[in-house]
Design brief:
Number of strands: 8
Helix content: 40-55%
Structural class: mainly alpha
Number of helices: 15
Largest sheet: 3 strands, antiparallel
Distance between the termini: 69 Å
Strand order of the largest sheet: 1-2-3
Low-confidence stretches: none
Mean pLDDT: 86
Strand content: 5-15%
Order of helices and strands: EEEHHHHHHHHEEEEEHHHHHHH
Length: about 425
């Protein structure tokens, strides 16, 4: 019986001597190969004629629906290398690129790297997430792994290397909101006392009174500080970046001054009068350090003025971010404050601002948040004020008064709802 037009014929394969083999095949015309200009035919095999026919029908259906992916030996690990280098290297910040490279090399390649890209299944990826969680990785880190896989497989789908993005068919762990450490008013007062005689006391005061990030403070230059008008421009951030994966890298890590992650990160922060006075005093002390930094033999200055940094070493060099952390830990220990980190000062500023009645949209701009939802997490500080205001309405609604024990129960429910 003649075969239908466009449907490849199925034939039994033979060896070199013409002996029939237990294998059937069909050759599917895939059009011209752009690299050679010749007709490209992809074989379909089956142990029986019926098996070969079923595979052929499935393949023809996928071709018609534009879901067919040509078999390839390309592994997930190999594709991740290509994706990271060719598609992400120019778009990602150096810190993010280094993070991606580490997560791919240490975690993804170890478990899934040798799997063929076209054969990767959702259950494999899900099992990978579950294993990493059971190994002790945080929900945040496993979510990063999901972001990487989802991005790489989405790109592979666009290029026709896979028929679907299996990462979208998984359930990554739900990331829990990280608990914020906020200094109490009493702890804040103790911290003020602890930094009074500290060389970098102005830096910590500025962090507490503006919410600036560690990297933003360490990259701040005097040309971005206007003491006359009383404001600061945030335009850069100092970070230590992992670079040992680069071919031209001379060191494992490098200190870099980078642009903010988002445009919202570039912002102007008005200064309180007390901060302007404090910065002027800090400038005077810095000038004294510049005058003292002189070579005893040559009389030449040892101070590096090229950086023009507001906060730097006694010789004008950038401060190592980890060293600033060490200074902070020493100060809170001196103040007798419980466990906290440098970012706690940013959280404390935001909480005090909300307590003082600052609008969320204003605070978003001061903190440099891209999304208002990020800033809204500080609204918990308003709950006590809201509860007090609602309490004043208690007797205004006739016949709707609440018994004392019901008040207590309602307060617990409200607290529980806020904490969810």
């Amino acid at each position: 019986m003649a075969r239908r037009k466009g449907i490849p014929s199925i034939r039994q394969r033979k060896d070199r001597n013409g002996k029939k083999l237990d294998c059937w095949e069909a050759l599917v015309n895939m059009g011209k190969d752009p690299s050679t200009g010749k007709i490209k035919r992809v074989p379909v095999y089956g142990k029986t004629q019926d098996e070969c026919r079923k595979k052929l029908i499935k393949m023809m259906s996928e071709i018609q629906n534009h879901t067919y992916v040509e078999p390839s030996k390309l592994t997930l690990g190999e594709w991740l290398d290509v994706w990271l280098k060719d598609f992400k290297s120019k778009k990602l910040r150096p810190t993010t690129y280094a993070c991606y490279e580490t997560l791919i090399r240490v975690h993804i390649k170890e478990c899934l790297g040798f799997a063929k890209l076209v054969d990767l299944k959702p259950e494999q990826v899900q099992a990978f997430y579950n294993k990493k969680l059971s190994d002790g990785l945080s929900e945040r880190t496993v979510n990063y792994l999901h972001v990487i896989l989802n991005g790489a497989l989405s790109q592979a789908l666009k290029l026709g290397k896979v028929s679907r993005n299996v990462a979208k068919l998984t359930e990554p762990p739900r990331q829990k909101a990280k608990e914020m450490r906020v200094l109490t008013v009493e702890e804040q007062a103790k911290f003020y006392e602890a930094i009074r005689d500290e060389r970098l006391g102005t830096l910590f005061l500025l962090s507490l009174a503006t919410g600036m990030r560690r990297g933003e403070l360490l990259a701040l230059t005097w040309d971005n500080v206007n003491l006359k008008e009383g404001f600061i421009k945030v335009t850069k951030s100092l970070v230590r970046v992992k670079t040992d994966f680069r071919e031209d890298a001379k060191k494992k890590t490098e200190l870099m001054i980078l642009e903010p992650k988002t445009e919202k990160g570039k912002r102007v922060i008005p200064l309180m009068d007390s901060l302007v006075i404090e910065l002027k005093e800090h400038r005077k002390r810095q000038m004294e350090e510049i005058n003292k930094a002189t070579d005893m033999n040559t009389g030449e200055s040892l101070y590096d003025k090229t950086n023009n940094l507001v906060f730097c070493t006694p010789l004008g060099k950038p401060i190592e971010p980890r060293n600033l952390n060490r200074i902070f830990y020493r100060l809170i220990d001196k103040a007798g404050i419980g466990k906290a980190n440098l970012h706690s000062l940013r959280h404390t500023f935001a909480t005090r601002a909300v307590e003082a009645g600052m609008q969320i949209v204003v605070m978003r701009d001061l903190l440099g948040h891209e999304n208002i939802s990020t800033t809204s997490r500080y609204s918990h500080a308003l709950m006590d004020a809201k509860r007090e205001a609602m309490g004043k309405l208690d007797n205004l609604f006739e016949g709707k008064s609440i018994k004392p024990e019901e008040k207590s129960r309602k307060k617990k429910k409200t607290d529980a709802a806020v904490n969810e």
